[in-house]
């Protein structure tokens, strides 16, 4: 799987739109329903923050833009178009840059999708999660499988040739056979999506699903079933021409998500909107989560600032890079930190190679298949 290398001077932009039609029962993201006036005011503030911050990043080439949420498709297509106009006018957006927006079935029309395409968005990420309507209802999704198929067809008709579909496994009551049917329905789409992101459900404290589970009202698949679903994903997608390039991400040739690869490779990125995180020249910072404060002063909402030490940079290089199936490069480590990877992590590397959790491929170190199953355990050793 060909993953583009990070180059000096490259920058990614992320825009957080924290609104949705209805909060899903598993969601602990910074998102909530809102009235139209609040949405309009937020988009005005987002435009102001984006335009007002441009002078700080003028020497960079913007290679990706990602509009996420929440559900960005609940705001008007005119606001999305205006946002991309500001990016083009104020930032160095390169020709052919990857521009993604997240959408949910039931929140877009053919007309809206066409406007996105005309505005320069060239990649869609559609939040499906399951092809089973009962599972969708349990998750609190606003759509059905039939609504997803309609949205998918309209996206193709609007011109999109780079589409990701988000899936979830290990749902309450889900069996391997049911999950296999979901994968089969996705692969039967004509044409099938270029990219698939497949995650296991994680119950987060404070969500309705978590509360039901705590009360004994939900039965989750056991750990063995969860692993078998993961292996089914790997096997079935590989048989259908998808390369696994990260623990939870699969793509046809030429369709890896460049934006997400930038996170794992520690490319500079700037996030706009409430709660949005950034990494610029080894400084991590984050916007505050108060909507009221953001609307009053979008350029003064930065709260958490952390200057990463050399040790922290090394740790991030290892545990983020090891998420990718190609692993981490010894040469790149030497180039960035002026020392050999073995001089810092030799004992950890050799122990995990001996245990069959890491492997050496040329001058790279990567997780084995067994290591992917125990990825959290392996990565924690580099902290």
Would you give an account of this structure?
With 383 residues, the protein is α/β, with parallel strands linked by helices. Helices cover 41% and strands 22% of the residues. It has 15 helices and 15 strands. It has helices at 36-53, 77-90, 110-119, 133-139, 145-158, 176-187, 208-214, 223-239, 258-264, 291-296, 310-321, 330-337, 341-354, 369-373, 375-380; strands at residues 10-17, 61-69, 93-103, 123-129, 163-169, 195-200, 243-246, 249-251, 268-272, 277-280, 283-287, 302-307, 328-329, 358-361, 364-367. Strand 5, helix 6 and strand 6 (195-200) form a beta-alpha-beta unit. Helix 1 (36-53) runs parallel beside helix 2 (77-90), helix 3 (110-119) crosses helix 5 (145-158) and helix 6 packs parallel to helix 8. The chain starts with 9 loop residues before the first strand and ends with a helix. The model has no long low-confidence stretch (mean pLDDT 94).
Question: Features of this protein?
Answer:
383 residues, alpha/beta, nine-stranded mixed sheet, globular
- End-to-end separation: 28 Å
Sequence of secondary-structure elements: EHEHEHEHHEHEHHEEHEEEHEHEHHEEHH
Taking strands numbered 1, 2, ... along the chain, how are they ordered across the largest sheet? 7-8-6-5-4-3-2-1-9
Number of separate strands:
15
Report the helical percentage: 40-55%
Mean pLDDT: 94
Low-confidence stretches: none
C-alpha geometry: globular
Per DSSP, the total helix count is 15
Major sheet: size, sense and barrel closure? 9 strands, mixed
Structural class call reads: alpha/beta
Radius of gyration based on Cα positions: 21 Å
> Strand portion, in percent?
15-25%
């Amino acid at each position: 799987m060909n993953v583009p290398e990070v180059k000096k001077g490259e920058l990614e932009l992320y825009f957080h739109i924290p609104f949705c039609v209805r909060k899903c029962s598993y969601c602990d993201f910074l998102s909530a329903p809102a009235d139209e006036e609040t949405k309009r005011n937020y988009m005005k503030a987002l435009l102001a923050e984006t335009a007002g911050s441009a002078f700080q990043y003028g020497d960079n080439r913007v290679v990706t833009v990602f509009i996420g949420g929440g559900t960005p498709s609940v705001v008007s297509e005119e606001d999305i178009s205006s946002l991309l106009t500001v990016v083009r006018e104020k930032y160095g957006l390169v020709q052919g840059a990857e521009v993604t927006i997240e959408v949910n079935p039931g929140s877009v029309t053919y007309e809206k999708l066409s406007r996105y395409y005309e505005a320069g968005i060239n990649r869609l990420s559609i939040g499906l999660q399951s092809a089973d309507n009962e599972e969708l209802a349990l998750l609190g999704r606003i759509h059905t499988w039939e609504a997803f198929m309609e949205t998918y067809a309209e996206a193709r008709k609007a011109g999109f040739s780079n589409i990701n579909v988000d899936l979830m496994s290990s749902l309450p009551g889900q069996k391997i056979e049911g999950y296999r049917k979901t994968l089969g329905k996705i692969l039967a789409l004509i044409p099938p999506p270029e990219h698939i992101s497949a995650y296991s459900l994680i119950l987060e404290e404070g969500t309705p699903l978590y509360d039901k589970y705590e009360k004994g009202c939900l039965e989750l698949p056991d750990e063995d079933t969860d692993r078998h679903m993961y292996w089914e994903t790997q096997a079935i997608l590989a048989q259908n021409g998808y390369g696994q390039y990260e623990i939870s991400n699969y793509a046809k040739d030429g369709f890896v998500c460049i934006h997400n690869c930038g996170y794992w490779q520690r490319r500079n990125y700037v996030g706009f909107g409430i709660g949005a995180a950034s990494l610029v020249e080894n400084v991590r910072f984050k916007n505050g989560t108060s909507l009221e404060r953001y609307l009053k002063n979008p350029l003064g909402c930065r709260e958490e600032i952390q200057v990463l030490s050399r040790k922290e940079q090394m740790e991030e290089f290892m545990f983020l890079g090891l998420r990718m199936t190609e692993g981490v490069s010894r040469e790149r480590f030497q180039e960035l930190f002026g020392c050999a990877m073995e001089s810092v992590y030799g004992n950890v590397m050799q122990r995990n190679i001996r245990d069959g959790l890491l492997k050496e491929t040329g001058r790279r170190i990567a997780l084995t298949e067994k290591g992917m199953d125990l990825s959290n355990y392996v990565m924690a050793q580099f902290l």
